[in-house]
Specification:
Blueprint lengths: L1 E4 L31 E2 L16 H12 L4 H7 L15 E7 L4 E9 L4 E6 L4 E6 L3 E6 L1
Antiparallel strand pairs: 1-7, 2-6, 3-4, 3-7, 4-5, 5-6
C-alpha cells in the first residue's frame, strides 16, 4: 500500500494551456475543479481485464463516503510522503483519492500526470472520468 498527502501550493483556478485544454480565464462548460469529468457514462460496467476493487479500499471508501464531515480529519491523520499533487505509482491500480475540496473517489487509475490529469474508471458505475491531478490532496493505492 502506498499513500501520500499533498503539501504544495494550490490555485483554485486551473487553466492548463495545451491543445484541447483550457483557455486561461475562460470557464469550460461542464468542468468543475475537483470533480471528475464523465467519459463512459453511468453504468458503463467494469472494463475487461480490470478486477473489482480490493475489500480494504472498498471499506475505506464506504466509510468516508458515509461520513463526509470526517474526511478532513481522516486526511490530516494520515502520514505524508512529501509534496505530491498526483497519484504517483498508482497507474493500473485501484486508488482511493481525496481532493483538496474533500471529495472522495475510488478509481482504477489508467493514467496520471503531475502537470495534467488523472484518468480512470470510477467506482461504483465504472464510468471513465478525469480530473486535474493538481486537485489531489491525498491518495492510497493497492
Amino acid at each position: 500500500m502506498y499513500s501520500c498527502r499533498a503539501l504544495g501550493p494550490f490555485s483554485p483556478f486551473l487553466t492548463p494551456s495545451m491543445p484541447g485544454g483550457f483557455i486561461p480565464g475562460v470557464p469550460t462548460p461542464g468542468f468543475v475543479p475537483g470533480v471528475p469529468t464523465p467519459g463512459g457514462g453511468p453504468g458503463a460496467g467494469l472494463p475487461p481485464g480490470i478486477t473489482p476493487p480490493p475489500p480494504q479500499l472498498l471499506s475505506s471508501f464506504q466509510q468516508l463516503s458515509q461520513s463526509p464531515s470526517q474526511v478532513q480529519s481522516f486526511v490530516s491523520q494520515q502520514p505524508t510522503q512529501g509534496i505530491t499533487t498526483f497519484a504517483a505509482g498508482c497507474q493500473n491500480r485501484w486508488t482511493l483519492i481525496v481532493t483538496r475540496t474533500f471529495n472522495v473517489f475510488l478509481m482504477y487509475v489508467t493514467s496520471t500526470n503531475p502537470f495534467g490529469f488523472t484518468e480512470g474508471f470510477i467506482f461504483p458505475t465504472y464510468s471513465f472520468g478525469r480530473f486535474p491531478s493538481s486537485v489531489i490532496s491525498w491518495y492510497t493505492c493497492f
